[in-house]
Amino acid sequence: MPINGYFDAPFAVAGNLQTVPDTIQGNGSVSYTEGFGILYSTAVASGGINFPRAQFNQLMNDITTALQYIQRGNAAAFITSAMNGGTPYSYPQYATVLKDGVAYQSLQDSNTDTPPSSKWAVLDFTSGSRSAVPGTYLNLKFAWASATTATLTADEAVVATALNGTAYKGSSLNLPLDLATVGAGGMDSGSPPTNGNLYVYLIYNPTTFTFALLATNSGTGATIYPGAYMPAGYTASALASVLRTNGSAELDSFTQIGREVYFPPVAILSGAAGKATLGSQSVAAAVPVGAKSVSGYIYQSQTGASIQTNVAVASDAAGTALQQGGRTSAFTGTYNNLNFRLLPILTPQTIYWTSADTRASSIDMGVSSYTF
Asked: Which of 8, 102, 223, 239 lies most in the core, judged by the most C-beta atoms within 10 Å?
């Protein structure tokens, strides 16, 4: 029997069952469409039908099994066209369904799409789950096209109205960015900065189910768009890229894969004298505020005799995350080179380097990628 309303055992789970058909039966027997027809209240001697015990068991079993499924906390199974007589079922806004083990919520009325699609939001209540974290991208690539344009592609992406806010997932994205325009697909307002930082956000309009890119020079790369110029109707966002503009307020060639931005080497130091200890070096010419690590090279051409050098880079003056090259011999005309990779940036746009000897000459340094 039900325990406080919970069907711990569906009706007739161990009894005799006989399928109840959907359509009206020509012989007047029970169906889901007609139920128990008039013949069940007619004497058998006058053409009536005996009460179908096994089919009544089946009817009660169908109902209590469905109730038990919902009582156990499950979302209703997605209704396919095959389940609905060959016609897509039209879901109302906020309807919750389960398909292939994933829970979805309908984002609009009259929704006949099969999830996943832009008309369904993934419901994920698992802490730390990939699908619930805004700014999560699968196979993201952002590629330079011209001085003012670039194109972002991604298999999947997650945006949100706020941290711990309503999240939306998009798939098969292919979105342009044009810095010569203002609004969705361009700048949030005004023009790109000169020799400045540019933050690109993926934004989403839940009314039109539209994704777009939006660039801004506001903030320092927050996960959610921090500006005051979100285009009308767009309510969710997530950081997609952090870029650096040149002296013409334009984009130099770059390719971003995941959260790393690659570009032809940019010189940040040329012909400098050596340093005996770690000293600071700005990388602002190539790396925007918000970058988390940097990769590049440091090269030393030693021309004097009796000089032994050992070029190295680090995240601070204490030598955190130190990366160093080999020590040169004490002979004229020797060279020392270090290709450093993913050096953490602890102070915005700043790293540290040394050549171990102040007499070392012609120190060059360049940057070719950064992460954010």
From this structure: 239
